Amino acid sequence: MKLFAVFVGGDHPRASIEVHDLRFVVGETLEDTLPALRAAWWGTPGSLHIDGYAELTEVDGWQVVLAPGKAGAPPARRLWFVNLGGYTPGLFGEQHNYLFLAGTDKAEVWSRARALSPEWTGRHKDNFVCIDEVIDVSDLLDSEGWHLRLDHPATGETPGRIVSDYIKL
């Protein structure tokens, strides 16, 4: 089984523009995850599409190992998703940078994410180097009946794929 991060989009009756969400789903292939993506979509059903996805088999130098059930002990390092946001003069709206990082705690991950953030001239309203949110993916998967480990150094033999493309569902 593989872990996928899927950037979905579509319409919502109360929105003026397309809305987006990020979902973490498990399957052998992206196609296996489509029923879960459809079931979780909160927008107009017929408008759902994928704007990009990441097949998270290796992250930040570590293999992503998925197993069913609860983890026996807290993992030594965890998989984190970081959404960095900021502003650039002359570009309308907030810009984003999405990162997948391995780390032991939130403070460590935030420090690394700040170092990897773009050189935006304007800061987000929280004034914390534009970090919108940090999601602990390990906790999210635990609630879905899976756990993951990042305890094997990546070999480069199964690098994850990142695909940015419009895929209508």
TrEMBL record:
It comes from the Bacteria. Gene3D superfamilies: 3.10.20.10. Residues 16-66 form the DUF1543 domain. InterPro entries: DUF1543 (IPR011440). This is DUF1543 domain-containing protein. It comes from Hyphomonas polymorpha PS728.
